[in-house]
Design goal:
Blueprint lengths: L1 E5 L2 E4 L2 H9 L5 E3 L3 E5 H9 L4 E3 L8 H5 L4 H16 L3 E4 L6 E4 L12 E7 L3 E3 H13 L3 E7 L5 E9 L13 E6 L2 E4 L4 H5 L5 E3 L2 E4 L1 H9 L3 E3 L8 H9 L4 H13 L3 E4 L7 E4 L10 E7 L3 E3 H13 L3 E8 L2 E10 L2
Parallel strand pairs: 1-5, 8-10, 12-16, 19-21
Antiparallel strand pairs: 1-2, 2-4, 3-4, 6-7, 7-8, 9-20, 10-11, 11-22, 12-13, 13-15, 14-15, 17-18, 18-19, 21-22
């Protein structure tokens, strides 16, 4: 028995065949009159797997090209490879409302039997990654109590999946409550020569060097703002104000500094993430006892990039067993977006 191509749907009128397709895979939507209505993707998948023949309304065999004329080619090129791949993995997919392409039901589940597991969004390799759109999509999907999964289709038709989630970062490092310390700025570093043991050993600021403590500029600013650090002004040192003014001219400095401060306020220890290709790596506890759990890249909410940059960052994080995080600054507040490669 064949399905009949009608506009952008395929109708299976044979009651027995319709029942078989729906009961063994939840294909289509049962209609009054005991026939089944398939969407284009369901019909193509069944056609490619020799489970259905398709004819037009004149009872002529419909070619794949005839069917594709009924759907947006741009939409098809990013949605069908994802649909086909997820179906081959044993998942049932149904159309979703914006911002997702499909609702994905767990293996063994389906409409009316189990809730959907993922809401699947789709994109192509050559499209731009637009952070604001991803954040908005994640918010809508999370509000529905679902997991946002992005299916990224490359030029060869292969599909890579990324899971997006906003997370509340929280570390275990308490704020420094010791005595006020005195330091001197040399270049873009601050050197503390005495009394720094608690600051370093319990709160993990700076790095020891020749019986002194060397602070990064982010650390120096943070401690100065909290009135923990008093700066010498000898003839060889540069003032904090002039150094801050000099740094503020550098692209992204204000953004990086705000994310650094927010990580510290949350009890984490930010250190340089240069070796991982990001601004920071972040520890939830003592860096001498644990590995950094996160690599963090500060970005503005309107950040845009190519998808391959996201792919590269996530792959690096995965290879070193860390989570890749965007620290997103919006209206003075920082939101943390975790991106992780997922195998459904």
């Amino acid at each position: 028995m064949a399905g009949i191509l009608k506009e952008d749907k395929i109708v299976v009128e044979d009651e027995k065949e319709a029942s078989r397709l729906y009961n063994k895979g939840y294909f289509g939507q049962p209609q009054s009159g005991n026939f089944l209505e398939l969407d284009i993707y369901e019909a193509l998948y069944l056609l490619e797997n020799d489970r259905l023949k398709i004819v037009d309304e004149e009872d002529q065999i419909a070619k794949k090209e005839d069917i594709l004329d009924r759907v947006s080619k741009k939409k098809f090129m990013r949605e069908y490879p994802a649909y086909k791949d997820m179906r081959s993995r044993g998942y049932v997919l149904k159309e979703a409302s914006d911002p997702a392409s499909f609702r994905v039901f767990p293996r063994g589940g389906g409409p009316g039997k189990t809730p959907s597991k993922y809401w699947l969004c789709t994109a192509r390799e050559k499209e731009n990654f637009q952070l604001e759109e991803v954040l908005e999509a994640n918010k809508k999907i999370s509000n529905l109590g679902k997991i946002m999964l992005m299916a990224l289709v490359d030029e060869e038709g292969d599909v890579t999946y990324y899971r997006f989630s906003t997370i509340d970062l929280k570390g275990r490092v308490e704020k420094y409550c010791g005595k006020k310390l005195k330091g001197t700025i040399y270049g873009d570093k601050c050197i503390i020569n005495n009394g720094f043991e608690g600051l370093h050993d319990k709160n993990f600021y700076g790095s020891k060097e020749n019986d002194s403590l060397k602070l990064s500029f982010y650390e120096t600013l943070y401690l100065k703002e909290r009135d923990i650090l008093e700066l010498d002004t000898d003839k060889n040192s540069q003032s904090l104000e002039s150094l801050e003014s000099e740094h503020s001219k550098k692209e992204g400095f204000s953004l990086m500094n705000k994310v650094y401060r927010d990580l510290r306020e949350k009890g984490l220890i930010p250190k340089t993430g240069f070796k991982y290709g990001t601004e920071f790596r972040a520890y939830a506890g003592n860096p001498e006892e644990i590995h950094a759990e996160y690599i963090v890249q500060p970005v503005e909410k309107d950040h845009k990039s190519r998808w391959y940059e996201v792919s590269r960052a996530v792959r690096v994080a995965h290879s070193v067993k860390k989570d890749f995080i965007y620290g997103v600054l919006e209206d003075g507040k920082v939101t943390y977006l975790k991106i992780k490669r997922e195998t459904p």
